[in-house]
Design brief:
alpha/beta; disordered N terminus; 726 residues; Rossmann fold; 3 domains; 33% helix; seven-stranded mixed sheet
Length: 726
C-alpha cells in the first residue's frame, strides 16, 4: 500500500536522544513487573502451525549483500522491510549494507532548483513512475543521483544485490540493476516485495532470483548456498529468473524474528526523523473480495510483549517516539492491541502511533480510550464505501452504523481518522454512490484528517473478484483494459465520472480538522465552476431513500449510455441537500481527464453539463454528451474540440477496445488462496482443483462468445435539456 503520510502528529522534535531520559533502574523493574501483569490479563495469542526462523551464525562469512529500495515509495520513515531483512542477515554473520535510494532521491530532488510542474512523490502522480513516462520525465532529473549511488555500491563489490519491487518503482530498479551489471558482471540480483507477489508479474532476465512470500528465510538460504558454492534451490523458472515461493501454509512466528537493523539509515533524511515503522502482525483476518494483500500470506499475530520490546529499544536507542504500524490491519487481534496499549501507558512511554485498521463494532468508547492512553494518535481506516449493499458485496463484515459509531467514539477519545475509499465497485449504482458521499459528509467533523481516493476499483488477479468474474456479474472480457459488468451499467467510463465527482466533492466539503484531500488543483481551474446561493450554508443530512429517481435522462440508446449520463445526479442531489441552491458547470474532456487520471483511468468522453437548482429544489439542466469509442486502434485518430473550441488529437492507442480475460491460469500462492475463497459455496466449481483451475472447454466457449462482443460500440451523441423539482 503506497500510503503518503501527512503530518498529523504535530509533535515536538524528538530526534535528539538526550530528550528521552532512561528510566531509574528500580522504577523500571517495578514498571516491567506491573506491565507483565497487564499484558498477561489480555494477551491470549495462541496460534498453531507457526515456525521459528532458524539462523546459523558463522563469523567467517565471505558473501556480501547490498539491499536497495528505489523510488517511488513513502519517504516519511526508514524502510522497515530493509531493516528487518538486514537484521536477520547480520545475525547470521553475513556482510550487509542497506541503501534507501528512495529517501535519498527524494532529498536530492527537493534540493534541485529546476523542479517538475508536479510533485513526483504524490500518490496522485504515481503513474509518472511507470513505463515510458518515467524515462521521459523523471529519469533525466534523477539519473545523476542514481549514478553516484551506483558507484558507492560498486566500491563495496557485493556478491548479491537485493531489490524491493513495488508497482511504481520497477523502472528505476531496472536501471540501477543494468548499470551495476556493467561494472560487476558476476553480481546476482534477488528481488522481492509486493509487485513480485502478483500473478501477472513477469520477471526481467537481469533478475536471478525472485522471492514470493516472506523474505527472511529465502534470502538467508540464497546467501548460504552461494557461500557454499551450491546451486540455489528454486520452485520454478520464468524469463531466466529462478522463483522461490514460500509454501502456501507456512507461517513464521513474528515474535521470534530478529530485530530490525537501522544502522545504515540517516534518520535526518525522513519527514519524521523521530519516527520508525513497526508491525504487530502479518496478513489479514479479513477476506475482502477486492483485496490482493490479504492473500499474500496467512495471518498471524505478534505478542504484545514482543512489540513492546521493539518499541522500547527504538525509543531509547534512536529517540523515536512516532510509529507507523505497517500491518494490513493493526486491530486484527483486539485483545493483543489493547494489551500493548495498556503496557505502553503503564511504562510511561510517551509515544504516538498510527496504523491501518478495520472498522469494528466491538471497538467501543472505552476501547478507544485505552488506545489513546497507549499512544494511538490516528487510525487509518479502510472505509471503501458508505453503502451497505456495496460493503456486503465486498465482504467487509461491518455495518454503516458500526462505522459511524467508530468515528464518533474515536473522535470523542481524541483519535483522528485517516480514510481510504474505493470508488466504482461493480455493484455500486447511483444510490450507493449517493450514500457513500453522504457517509463521508456525516463523518467530516468526527476527527477526519485524510481522504485517500486512489484510482477506484480495479480487478486484481489475486482477488476473490478476479478469480470469479461471474459471481460479481462481470463479463469475462476487458473493455478499454478495464472490467465491465454484464448489464453494461458499470465500466471504466462510469468509474471515471464518479472519480472526478468524488474528488470535487471532497474539495467542496469543510471539515473541523485540517484534512488531506485528493485535491487535484486543475479540477477547480479547468473542469468545473460552482456558485452557491448561500455559500455559508451547511445542512445535516440523512441517507437517501431507495425510491429517489436517478434515471432522469432516458435516451433509450442503451443501458451503457443512459447509466453513464445519469452518473451525475447523485453528486448534484447530495450537493443540493447540503448547500441548498447553486449553479454548476462540469466539463469532461478526454485530454484533460487523461492528464489527471492517466490513459487507463480515463475514457473517451467529452461532455459539458450546466445545472442550476434553487433552494426549493427546482432545477434545470442543459447537457451535451459525446462518447467516441474506437473499435480496435484506441483513440489516436479521434479529433476533438474542447469547451473553448480548440481542436486536439488524443494520445497513442491503448490497443484493442475489447479483450478476453482469464485469470485461472495463474498459480501463485495468492491466486490459489483467493480462488479457494472465490469458489466456496459455488456449485459451478464443485470438485474443481483450485491449483489446476484452467478449463480449456470453458475458455474456448468464452473466446467463441467474444466474437459477439468485440464489435459492440458504445459511441453516442446526446443533448439533454429539461427541468424538474426535487
Amino acid at each position: 500500500m503506497n500510503s503518503k503520510i501527512v503530518d498529523f502528529f504535530s509533535l515536538p522534535d524528538a530526534r535528539s536522544k538526550d530528550k528521552i531520559k532512561k528510566p531509574n533502574k528500580v522504577t523500571a523493574e517495578d514498571k516491567h513487573t506491573a506491565t507483565l501483569e497487564i499484558i498477561k490479563e489480555l494477551s491470549k495469542v495462541s496460534q498453531k502451525g507457526l515456525e521459528n526462523l532458524e539462523i546459523n551464525y558463522n563469523v567467517d562469512r565471505k558473501t556480501k549483500i547490498v539491499l536497495c529500495l528505489l523510488p517511488e515509495w513513502d519517504s516519511n520513515f526508514p524502510p522497515y522491510n530493509l531493516a528487518k531483512l538486514a537484521g536477520a542477515i547480520k545475525v547470521s554473520g553475513f556482510f550487509c549494507k542497506s541503501f534507501d535510494l528512495n529517501a535519498g532521491a527524494h532529498h536530492y530532488y527537493q534540493n534541485l532548483d529546476n523542479k517538475l510542474d508536479y510533485y513526483p512523490w504524490s500518490p496522485l502522480r504515481d503513474f509518472h513512475w511507470q513505463n515510458n513516462l518515467y524515462f521521459e520525465e523523471l529519469h533525466p532529473v534523477l539519473q545523476p543521483y542514481f549514478d553516484k549511488k551506483i558507484q558507492e555500491i560498486v566500491e563495496i563489490s557485493p556478491d548479491i544485490v537485493g531489490l524491493t519491487l513495488y508497482y511504481c518503482n520497477y523502472e528505476p530498479s531496472i536501471y540501477v540493476a543494468n548499470e551495476l551489471k556493467k561494472f560487476l558482471p558476476n553480481i546476482k540480483f534477488v528481488v522481492g516485495g509486493p509487485h513480485t507477489h502478483n500473478s501477472f508479474f513477469k520477471s526481467n532476465s537481469i533478475f536471478d532470483y525472485v522471492v514470493n512470500g516472506e523474505g527472511e528465510k529465502p534470502l538467508l538460504d540464497i546467501l548460504e548456498q552461494i557461500e557454499q558454492e551450491k546451486e540455489v534451490e528454486f520452485t520454478d523458472k520464468n524469463d531466466n529468473s529462478f522463483f522461490i515461493r514460500q509454501p502456501e501454509n507456512q507461517r513464521y512466528n513474528l515474535s521470534t524474528l530478529p530485530s530490525p537493523d537501522y544502522s545504515d539509515f540517516d534518520f535526518s533524511l525522513y519527514k519524521f526523523p523521530n519516527g520508525a515503522l513497526c508491525e504487530i502482525s502479518r496478513g489479514c483476518i479479513a477476506k475482502c473480495t477486492f483485496c490482493e494483500e490479504t492473500h499474500f500470506w496467512k495471518y498471524r499475530q505478534r505478542t504484545a510483549l514482543s512489540t513492546l520490546e521493539e518499541i522500547e529499544r527504538m525509543y531509547y536507542t534512536y529517540g523515536t517516539n512516532v510509529y507507523w504500524f505497517i500491518d494490513s490491519l493493526v486491530n486484527g487481534n483486539l485483545n493483543e492491541l489493547r494489551a500493548f496499549c495498556r503496557a505502553v501507558h503503564r511504562k510511561g512511554l510517551k509515544i504516538h502511533w498510527t496504523g491501518y485498521a478495520r472498522c469494528d463494532g466491538r471497538m467501543d468508547l472505552e476501547y478507544y480510550k485505552d488506545l489513546k492512553k497507549g499512544g494511538c494518535t490516528v487510525l487509518n481506516y479502510g472505509i471503501e464505501s458508505g453503502s451497505q449493499k456495496v460493503l456486503d458485496k465486498m465482504d467487509k463484515k461491518v455495518t454503516v452504523e458500526e462505522m459511524e459509531a467508530n468515528f464518533r467514539d474515536g473522535s470523542a477519545a481524541g483519535i483522528g481518522a485517516m480514510t481510504n475509499w474505493i470508488v466504482g465497485f461493480p455493484n455500486e449504482r447511483h444510490i450507493d454512490f449517493d450514500n457513500t458521499l453522504t457517509f463521508l459528509y456525516r463523518i467530516k467533523d468526527k476527527g477526519l484528517l485524510s481522504i485517500a481516493q486512489g484510482t477506484g476499483f480495479v480487478v486484481g488477479v489475486d482477488t476473490i473478484v478476479g478469480q470469479n468474474f461471474d459471481k460479481f456479474d462481470l463479463l469475462p472480457y476487458y473493455y478499454y483494459d478495464h472490467w465491465i459488468t454484464k448489464d453494461f451499467k458499470a465500466s471504466i467510463a462510469h468509474k471515471m465520472v464518479k472519480n472526478k465527482l468524488f474528488s470535487i466533492f471532497t474539495d467542496l466539503i469543510k471539515t473541523d480538522e485540517a484534512c488531506a484531500k485528493p485535491t487535484r488543483e486543475r479540477l477547480a481551474q479547468e473542469h468545473y465552476r460552482v456558485d452557491f446561493l448561500n455559500p455559508e450554508l451547511e445542512k445535516e443530512i440523512q441517507y437517501t431513500s431507495k425510491d429517489f429517481n436517478y434515471n432522469i435522462i432516458n435516451s433509450n440508446i442503451g443501458p451503457f449510455q443512459d447509466s453513464l449520463m445519469n452518473e451525475i445526479w447523485p453528486f448534484f442531489h447530495i450537493l443540493w441537500k447540503i448547500k441548498g441552491g447553486y449553479s454548476f458547470q462540469l466539463l469532461f474532456n478526454i485530454k484533460l481527464d487523461q492528464e489527471e487520471w492517466g490513459i487507463r483511468g480515463s475514457a473517451p468522453l467529452n461532455s459539458l453539463i450546466k445545472f442550476d437548482i434553487d433552494n426549493n429544489g427546482k432545477w434545470k439542466a442543459d447537457c451535451t454528451f459525446e462518447y467516441k469509442q474506437e473499435d480496435y486502434n484506441g483513440w489516436n485518430d479521434v479529433k476533438w474540440k474542447d469547451h473553448w473550441g480548440k481542436e486536439f488529437c488524443a494520445p497513442d492507442p491503448v490497443g484493442p477496445v475489447w479483450k478476453v480475460t482469464d485469470f485461472t491460469r495463474d498459480t501463485s500462492n495468492s491466486a490459489i488462496r483467493a480462488r479457494k475463497l472465490a469458489w466456496r459455496d459455488d456449485i459451478k466449481y464443485d470438485n474443481r482443483d483450485p491449483k489446476n483451475a484452467f478449463n480449456e472447454d470453458e475458455y474456448t466457449q468464452i473466446v467463441q462468445e467474444f466474437l459477439n462482443y468485440r464489435n459492440i460500440n458504445f459511441s453516442f451523441n446526446y443533448e439533454f435539456k429539461n427541468n424538474g423539482k426535487w
